[in-house]
C-alpha cells in the first residue's frame, strides 16, 4: 500500500496531470504491456481515465496464433499482455506507462505473486521509437521508488495476438470467482483508493 501511494504520488497522478496539455480531436493510440496475469492488468487499466478499451492477449514470443494452453505450457515464448487503447486528448502515453509501475511489481523475476512462469513476466512492447523512449524514461523514474532493480523487458512489438473470448473482461464477468475475489479485487480496491479520478 505504501509503495503504491509513493508511486502514484511520484508520478503526480491527479485529474489535471492525466489530461493532455493540448487536447486534439478524438483519436485512439495503443500500447501493449504485460504485468503478470492479464486479468489483473485488464481490471487495473479500466480504472484509468482516458483508457477506451483493454484487450487481453499474447505477445513477445515466436509462436503464431498461440492458445492459452500453449502459453501456459511455456511452448511459445509469449507473455500474457494487454493492448491498451487510449485517447491521448484525455491521458498521455507517459501517464499510461507511469501507471504500469503501480499495477504490478516490476522487480519480481519469474512471475507475479503466486503466478509463476515466463508468461507472467513484466514487459513493455513498443510500437515505435516514441513509445520506446517513453518506456525507458518512465522506467528510469520508477527505479527511484524501488529498492530492487526493475526487471521489465522493453522490446519491440512484432505481433499482438488477442486471447480467447473468455479471458476478455474476466474480472467484470466473474467477480465471485476465487482469483477475482482474493487477488484482483484487493488490487483494484487499492488503486481506486489512490487514484483520484478513478472510474
- Describe the strand arrangement of the main beta sheet, using strand numbers: 7-6-1-3-2-8
CATH topology grouping: Peptide Methionine Sulfoxide Reductase, Chain A
Summed over residues and divided by their number, the pLDDT gives a mean of: 89
Query: What is the number of E strands?
Result: 8
Give the tally of structural domains: 1
The helix/strand order is HHEHEHEHEEEHEEHH
* Assembly state (oligomeric): single chain
Describe this structure in words.
With 199 residues, the chain is of the alpha+beta class. It has a single domain, classed as Peptide methionine sulphoxide reductase MsrA (Peptide Methionine Sulfoxide Reductase, Chain A, 2-Layer Sandwich). It is 35% helix and 20% strand. Helix 3 (38-45) runs parallel beside helix 8 (178-194) and helix 5 crosses helix 6 (129-143).
Question: How is the topology of this model organized?
Answer:
Elements: H1 2-10, H2 15-18, E1 29-35, H3 38-45, E2 51-59, H4 68-72, E3 79-86, H5 93-100, E4 111-112, E5 115-116, E6 122-126, H6 129-143, E7 153-156, E8 161-162, H7 170-173, H8 178-194
Parallel strand pairs: 6-7
Antiparallel strand pairs: 1-3, 1-6, 2-3, 2-8, 4-5
Write out key terms for the chains shown.
Peptide Methionine Sulfoxide Reductase, Chain A, six-stranded mixed β-sheet, single chain, alpha+beta, 8 helices, 8 strands, 199 residues, globular, two-stranded antiparallel sheet
Could you give a short description of this structure?
The protein has 199 residues and is an alpha+beta fold.
Amino acid at each position: 500500500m505504501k509503495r503504491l501511494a509513493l508511486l502514484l504520488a511520484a508520478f503526480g497522478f491527479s485529474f489535471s496531470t492525466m489530461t493532455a496539455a493540448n487536447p486534439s480531436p478524438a483519436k485512439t493510440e495503443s500500447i501493449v504491456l504485460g504485468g503478470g496475469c492479464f486479468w489483473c492488468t485488464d481490471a487495473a487499466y479500466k480504472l484509468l481515465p482516458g483508457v477506451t478499451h483493454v484487450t487481453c492477449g499474447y505477445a513477445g514470443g515466436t509462436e503464431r496464433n498461440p492458445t492459452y494452453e500453449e502459453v501456459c505450457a511455456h511452448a511459445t515464448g509469449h507473455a500474457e499482455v494487454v493492448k491498451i487503447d487510449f485517447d491521448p486528448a484525455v491521458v498521455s502515453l507517459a501517464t499510461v506507462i507511469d501507471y504500469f509501475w503501480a499495477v504490478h511489481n516490476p522487480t519480481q523475476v519469474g512471475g507475479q505473486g503466486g503466478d509463476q512462469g515466463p508468461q507472467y513476466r513484466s514487459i513493455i512492447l513498443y510500437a515505435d521509437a516514441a513509445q520506446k523512449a517513453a518506456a525507458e524514461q518512465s522506467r528510469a523514474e520508477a527505479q527511484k521508488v524501488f529498492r530492487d532493480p526493475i526487471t521489465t523487458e522493453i522490446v519491440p512489438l512484432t505481433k499482438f495476438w488477442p486471447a480467447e473470448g473468455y479471458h476478455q473482461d474476466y474480472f467484470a464477468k466473474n467477480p465471485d470467482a476465487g482469483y477475482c475475489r482474493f487477488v484482483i479485487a484487493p488490487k483494484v480496491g487499492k488503486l481506486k483508493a489512490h487514484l483520484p479520478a478513478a472510474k
